[in-house]
TrEMBL record, chains A, B:
Chemical reaction(s) catalysed: tRNA(His) + L-histidine + ATP = L-histidyl-tRNA(His) + AMP + diphosphate + H(+)
Subunit: Homodimer.
Family recorded in the similarity comment: Belongs to the class-II aminoacyl-tRNA synthetase family.
Signal peptide residues on this chain, from the entry's feature table: none
Subcellular location, record wording: Cytoplasm
This protein's UniProt keywords: Aminoacyl-tRNA synthetase, ATP-binding, Cytoplasm, Ligase, Nucleotide-binding, Protein biosynthesis
Aminoacyl-transfer RNA synthetases class-II family profile domain: residues covered: 29-371
Protein name in UniProt: Histidine--tRNA ligase
Enzyme Commission (EC) number: 6.1.1.21
GO biological process, one term: histidyl-tRNA aminoacylation
GO cellular component labels: cytoplasm
Superkingdom classification of source: Bacteria
Binding site for L-histidine: 102-104, 132, 146, 150, 302, 306-307
Length: 464, 464
């Protein structure tokens, strides 16, 4: 409407389900990512990066029908789009690309494309955003980070041990200790255990995946809910009850749980083999960071159908939702290569870990990257000397902001406080004549005079 | 076709114009980004991050008509898409989002949305990929990184000095020194100088932007080419010749060039004011890292119409194309806020800098992040002791890979060499009995026996 332009409100919020990160948010996220990256690297993993967009063909059909609907499609361009639009098109005909849905399908593509350039065991980590056109909700975003760790090429259970240890060490270094309220559990199970339990309780082979889907919801809907769901998915009362009764009696303690499973599954080939593998994983983690956190959980199912061996999930006691999860998936990585390639991995849920760290106050008070010193702006006569001082301090590694305008000092100090800068320096005519700098502590308000040549050392001592 | 499934070739290359980065690529990119980030932070800048997708409305109309065509559009979903597709839709009706085209429009959106939370001067850096549906070519990608540095809120020319110094310091720390073949130039000009030159040579005010577009092509098409283009854009022979003759006589040396401009532009208000500002910028950079690299270039135009003051571009002598560029753009940041907000920034061209660093061999031999030690896999009896060793070494900060399978040693060593791991450790039955570890230098082939307790120190000494 004419005349309204000057009051028009532009929509300046980020797009639905995505977030803007202001400096403190970025620094906190970066602090966590740096720890994850350092630990992943200490386990011999190397970084991989792939485009945000993948061919639509690469993405479709990999995540089930529901997954296909959650892929953000990128439209074709120019004449190709015109042709597609001309003739009652579908969503897949107008698009030729999509935003990546996870970091696992890109890994499978990489393994197929660069097989000659990759080492015998490809140990990669990938920390990057993924995209899902899901309904946004508290804690559920359409753009969110995954922190993946995978080993491609080995069936050794040492791989599981390394991956679990790396995940546990990340959380320990972030401040999660023990397995009680302030710590975390690594719930561990095996797809073969689940299959064995179904065999011996009489769930028909054809209904195993139906049963898995139901069992996977135990956290959300409880035992009664799962039983109802098992029934609704065609599993009869006897089998449902037997399955749930059986797992309800599993002991908590790891060795006892493994013995119990061994006994119960002695007549199931699938089950017996799985228990042997689980025991192997537990033995191999015994001297590492994961040891104190592992809990055998015969209920743990993990929704994704591609898992083939051990599966695991991070649980924060007293909090719902998972902080990460993974497992062995020996048939997925080879999908673009037409061969079977063993693989095993783990993904940390960055968003959830950040949320819990915030609740528990686990971030350091001072985050690396924030400016440490403000050089005030006095007048045009002393500006050159102030610029020189800024440069000299930066050369020593200090993070130095320089107030751009010759404003009144109160305003300059307020700006420093707003930005969390703890110290301001004043270098005016008097200081220049005396060869000093006035150092003002903005927390205490105290100020002192320091010889020009000593300022860097003085600041460094004060900042530590 | 039936029977062909097993030989079907999936397309596993990355999408056109985008790249996969294998570990060494990522580590090299990360090395450069780390330097950029450290220097930016040392100048008091803080990180910002925004979503890869923006509302289509936010992006359209900001980059000219050509730019609008280069925006990757993300399709609407579900019923909204169905409705849009039903009725002879256009490319803008089927999409509700687009991939960001640069990091400047997102900054403008952030300044409008969070004005209450941002400090008086907002000094942010943003290192992230941007997307353009351009025709891919050598060195031109559809997904590429920008490394932006901007100060919002001040008109002080100290801001220009800080931004130029930060850019220069990044390049110096990456190994570019001086202004000759192995170094770089910061070509500096001012939009007001260009305007002034046109005034005094008789280019009509209405044709100034036409003339700017032509002058901006000097690098690519030479003086004759520019003259032809000026003529074809409606600028008469006299003005064209005068404009080109005039700038051709500008002295190389900075102070001389400024004096020359001052003389020539004494009768142009625009021009005189611009020269004063340029002199100010030059004076304020005199004691910083940019000082030795600045060259006044009255031809430099920079294509983007949003610049309002000083403009600059990094040039690598003997190489075409720019390594970064920026300028003052006082009218753009306020576009979502309906107010005028001064701003000045700089963007380093990561891809081009990486390319030149590779050509000149400027990457360090050893990149942080690569594994340093391989623990070999002996047999199942000694595996636990080997896992313990791996864990102990990682605790000291070493990056340790552990070979997953009990393979023959030659194969294990080859794997280490493939991955550039310089040292392998052997801890078998004999070593365990003797309390030692055999340390094999994979470069020389030599091996020695080291007491178990001393291995970490021994490795650390050898790796440095």
């Amino acid at each position: 409407m004419p005349g309204e332009t000057s009051v028009a409100r532009f929509q300046t919020k980020p797009i639905s389900g995505a977030r803007d990160f202001l400096p403190l948010d970025v620094l906190r996220r970066q602090y966590v990512i740096d720890v994850i990256e350092r630990v992943y690297q200490s386990y011999g993993f190397e970084p991989l990066d792939t485009p945000v967009m993948e061919r639509l063909d690469t993405l479709l059909g990999k995540y089930g029908e529901e997954g296909d609907q959650l892929i953000f499609r990128v439209a074709k361009r120019g004449a190709k789009l015109q042709r597609a639009l001309a003739d009652a098109p579908t969503q897949d005909e107008i698009a030729d690309a999509g935003l990546r849905y996870d970091l696992t399908v890109p890994l499978a593509r990489i393994v197929a494309e660069y097989s000659n350039q990759l080492p015998r065991y490809f140990k990669r980590y990938h920390i990057a955003p993924v995209y899902r056109a899901d309904r946004p909700a508290k804690g559920r975003f359409r753009e969110f980070y995954q922190c993946d760790l995978d080993v491609v090429g080995s069936s050794s259970k040492l791989v599981e041990a390394e991956v679990l240890n790396a995940g546990a060490q990340v959380l320990q270094e972030l401040g999660f200790h023990g397995r009680d309220a302030s710590g975390f559990l690594l719930r561990l199970n095996h797809r073969g255990v689940l299959r064995g339990l179904m065999e011996i309780t009489g769930v028909p082979a054809g209904l195993e995946s139906e049963a898995l889907v139901a069992v996977d919801k135990l956290d959300k809907i409880g035992l009664d809910g799962v039983e109802k769901e098992l029934r609704s998915r065609g599993i009869d009362q006897t089998a449902s009850t037997a399955l749930l009764d059986l797992t309800a009696t599993a002991p908590e303690e790891t060795d006892a749980a493994l013995c119990w499973l061994e006994e119960k599954l002695v007549n199931s080939d699938n089950g017996a083999q799985a228990v042997t593998e689980l025991k192997n994983v537990v033995t191999l983690t015994q001297t590492g960071p994961a040891a104190d956190h592992i809990r055998i959980d015969p209920y743990l199912a993990r929704g994704l159908s591609y898992y083939t061996g051990p599966i695991y999930e991070i649980e924060f006691p007293t909090l719902s939702g998972s902080g990460g999860a993974g497992g062995r998936y020996d048939d997925l990585i080879g999908m673009f290569s037409n061969r079977s390639i063993p693989a095993c991995g783990f993904s940390l849920g960055l968003e959830r870990i950040l949320l819990i760290m915030e609740e528990r106050g686990l971030f350091p008070q001072k985050l690396a990257g924030q400016p440490q010193v403000l050089i005030t702006n006095f007048d045009s006569e002393t500006l050159a000397a102030n610029i020189e001082l800024a440069h000299a301090l930066r050369q020593t590694g200090l993070r130095v902001d320089h107030y751009p305008d010759p404003d009144n000092l109160g305003r300059q100090f307020r700006y420093a406080e707003e930005r969390n800068i703890p110290v301001a320096l004043l270098l005016g005519g008097n200081e220049l004549a005396a060869g000093t700098v006035t150092v003002k502590d903005l927390t205490s308000g105290e100020q002192e005079s320091v010889a020009h040549a000593d300022v860097a050392d003085h600041l460094r001592a004060g900042l530590h």
